[in-house]
Amino acid sequence: MNYAERLHTFQQRLGLTADMAFFPISADLHYLTGVPRDIPTYGWTMHPGAWLEGLWIAPGKDALLTLPRMTAEFGGLSALTGVRMRVLGDWDDPAALVGEILAGFDLPPGPRVAVGDRTHAETLIALQTLLPGVLFTSGTGILRPQRTIKSEDEIAVMRRAGQITEAAFADVVGHLRHGMTELDVISEVNHQLKRHGSLGESFTTSLYNAGPHHPLIFGDRAGKSLRVLQPPVSILFDFGAIYEGFCYDYGRTVSFGAPDPAFQRIYDLVMQSQAAGVAALRAGSAAASQVDAAARRVIEDAGYGPAFRHRLGHGIGMDVHEPPFLTKGDETPLESGMLFTVEPSIMQFESFSARVEDVVVARPGGGEKLTNGFQSLIVIE
C-alpha cells in the first residue's frame, strides 16, 4: 500500500477544513501509515503518557508519530520506517513533548484541530490546556471519503481475507458433531481462523442458534455458551478474518439433523434475498436504501418481514462496520469500489432461523461477491 500517497492526499483535504489533525492508534492511523493496531482486550491497557500515542499532522509539515516507550519497544515499532517518530521515556513529560510539536506547526490562535473518532478524552483534555480556544472537529470525517472507495489493490486484500475466512469455515464444518456446545463451535472457529493465517477474529465470533427446543437468545454470551447443540437446531455463523489490516465478515447456516420443509423454505428465501441485494448493488445508478429494499422485499413478500431484524448490510474495510449502511433512510449514492456486507436473515425465537453473509463490491452492473462457497444449506446428520 502507498501510505505516503494516502497521507499526502489527506493533508491536502485537511488544509481545507482544519489547521492540524491527530489520530490515535486505530484503523484511521493504520490506513494512513501502516502502523498496526493489536487485538483489543476486555480491560484497558495503557502506558505512561499514553494520551499522546498517535500521529500529529499539519498541512505542509512532516507528520510525526509519538509513542510511549513501552508501546514503541514491546509493540515492535522502534524500527518503523516511512514516518518520523518521537518516543516518550517512561519518566518524561508528555505535555512538554506535545507542546514542542505544536510549536513547530505554527498554529493560529484558537486552532481548528481534527481528531480521529477513537481519540480518548484524556488527549482532548490535554490539548485544551495546550491550545486555549481550540475547536475540535472530526478527523475521521475528513478521512472517510478516502477510505470508503477501495482501490483494486485493497479489494484484492479483502478477497484474500475472504479466502482465509472461508477456508477456516470449511475446516470448522469438518469438525461439527451433534452434542457440541456453542462454546465448542466458537472455539473451533477462532482456532481455524488463526490456523489459516488470520491475526485473530475481526470481531467477536457469534452464533445465533435456534430450533423448536433451542430458543434463540441475543446477548448473554456466558449464559448460553455451554448449551448443547442437538438436532433439530439451526446454527447461524457470524465471524471473519483479519488480513493486512482489513476485516472480513461472513455468515453461513448449518442444520444439525435433516431440515424439515419449513426450515428449507426460510433458508431458500434468505439466499434469494441475498441474490436480490447483490444484483441491486449497481454503482452509479442506485442508493444504499434501494439495495436494502430490494433484498427485504423477498422476505416480506413471503410473510417473514418481522423476522428480518436488522439492516441488510454495512460498509466494511479496515473496520468491520463503516458507513454507508444498506438500510432504509441511507440515500448515499453507490460508487464503484465500495465494499458492503449483504447479510439478510430470518431469525425466529422458537423455531428455525437462517442467515447468509458475504462481502460484496459495488460495480456498475451489480455487486461482485468476494466469497461464493457453501451456497446450499449445510446438513450435519
Explain this structure.
- This protein is an alpha+beta fold and 381 residues long.
- The chain folds into two domains: 3-147, Creatinase/prolidase N-terminal domain (Creatine Amidinohydrolase, Chain A, domain 1), CATH 3.40.350; 152-380, Creatinase/methionine aminopeptidase superfamily (Creatine Amidinohydrolase), CATH 3.90.230.10.
- 35% of the residues lie in helices and 19% in strands.
- The protein has eleven helices and 19 strands.
- The chain has helices at 3-14, 27-33, 69-74, 94-104, 121-130, 139-148, 152-175, 182-195, 221-224, 261-280, 288-301, and strands spanning 20-24, 54-57, 64-68, 84-88, 112-115, 135-138, 206-210, 233-238, 242-243, 246-247, 253-256, 313-315, 322-326, 339-342, 345-346, 354-355, 358-361, 368-369, 378-380.
- It has a six-stranded mixed beta sheet with strand order 4-3-2-1-5-6. The protein has a four-stranded mixed beta sheet with strand order 7-8-11-19, with no helix packed on it.
- A hairpin with a 6-residue loop joins strand 12 and strand 13.
- Helix 10 (261-280) packs antiparallel against helix 11.
- It is globular and about 70 Å long.
Q: Features of this protein?
A:
35% helix; Creatine Amidinohydrolase, Chain A, domain 1; six-stranded mixed β-sheet; globular; 19% strand; 381 residues; 11 helices
Layout of secondary structure:
Layout: H1 3-14, E1 20-24, H2 27-33, E2 54-57, E3 64-68, H3 69-74, E4 84-88, H4 94-104, E5 112-115, H5 121-130, E6 135-138, H6 139-148, H7 152-175, H8 182-195, E7 206-210, H9 221-224, E8 233-238, E9 242-243, E10 246-247, E11 253-256, H10 261-280, H11 288-301, E12 313-315, E13 322-326, E14 339-342, E15 345-346, E16 354-355, E17 358-361, E18 368-369, E19 378-380
Helix pairs in contact: 1-6, 7-8, 10-11
